[in-house]
Amino acid sequence: MISVVELTKHFHVGHTTLVAVDRLSFRVEAGEVYGLLGPNGAGKTTTLWMVLGVLQPTAGYAEVDGYRSTDVPDAVKARLGLVSASAGVYPWLTPRETLLFFADLYHVPPEEAVESVARISERLGLTRFLDQRCATLSTGQKQRVNLARALIHAPQIMLLDEPTRGLDVWGSKVIFDYVRHLRDAGKAVIVCTHRLDEAERLCDRFGLLHHGRLLHEGTLAELRARTGCQSLTEMFLQLIETTAGAGMGSP
Fold first, then answer.
1. End-to-end Cα separation, the chain, in angstroms
2. Stretch (H or E) spanning 182
3. What are the pLDDT digits (tens) for 30-55?
């Protein structure tokens, strides 16, 4: 479903070249939740922007359902849903108006859009505030609207960038439950987060990213066997210490 091959991104700042993503390769299949994990600045969000086709890579490529992001970005976007903690909502629209507006952007037929809004709202618990202005909603309610917005065109692939940032325990649970539903429905899901405890509960496989490089990849059992560490947090601390000792640490 998602194939990332030698994906690389350089940013030029004055006379300095910043390597944000460094020859990154991985695959995500249908019915799989893949955790692309790393601390802030590891290159997670940059990777998602390149998968989406919003950001052009310096080298390498990403394919979504057989469509290359650099060649046909509109076809890629039509097959993806994106949930980002940095995404806002239109304050003067209601959730219902927001969802119907995005359904129209994705060319969802009006009758189908109304049915989709009702179905998604019921599953995500939006019904009781579906007709309030978004400006009046809590952080958790707005994030549920963002999730519903990303699902309105029934994409086969979901990208979630720090989806639980700013959410309380209940809000996080809503996100977790729906990600599991997406996996059970055969969707391919990438979750980017620095919340390693959450990732352990949610993801099937993991890619551990540090300074733009994929340093380890596998299931939790495989990573435990490879690193000798029991938790993802311990693995990252070990990786950071090792790479810093090898001269790859932060400047």
1. 36
2. helix 169-184
3. 999 999 998 888 899 999 999 999 99
